[in-house]
Here is the input.
Amino acid sequence: MRALRGRRAGAAAVALGAVLVLAGCSGGDGGTGSGSGDGDVADQGYVSGDGSFTQWAADDRQGPVEVAGTDFAGQAVDVADWRGDVVVLNTWYAACPPCRDEAPDLVDIANEYADAGVHLLGINGVDDAGAAESFQRTFDVPYPSIDDRDKQAVAALQGVVPIQATPTTVVLDREGKVAARIVGLAEGSTLRALVDEVLAEGEGAA
Here is the structure.
């Protein structure tokens, strides 16, 4: 699988359409951050990622990802309903320091790209509704998060792309396939660049 790897670079580090291997410290195919395990590790504290990102060329993407669940307001959410749009998935929980650090950027991106056909969805496998909703109010989060304490959403995602750190952010293309992943804190400039690339893929076909 051809993958593109990089550290927490700015937007300039992500050239549209380029197939480059950027300097990163992710190890193995697909690129992973430090630490390993699944959502359960969050119960003892977050698993640190280094903010490195991986991209996959269109022909090498896995999926489509099938993630569905109920958000903390009791509403059903299914990413299949967003096929044809770009989707950003973000694993988080309220006491996770990098999750709090990246929240303002995620909120800004959700608001800025709302009219461009980009949907954000959080996946929280640790918090009860009280803690999750308090976090969402604190950061004025405009997008839903799945209550994933049964680990079903992460299991579905894990079957397509490794989730070995909290937070992890995954960008899905219009077909629901994994186009990019950030392991650890997602810097706003990096995530915007990754989203812009996937958005641009559909412009030629429009």
Remarks:
- The beta strands are 3-6, 52-56, 68-70, 76-78, 86-91, 118-124, 145-147, 168-172, 178-183.
- Residues 6-47 have pLDDT under 50 and may be disordered.
- The longest helix spans residues 97-112.
- Helices lie at 97-112, 129-138, 152-158, 188-201.
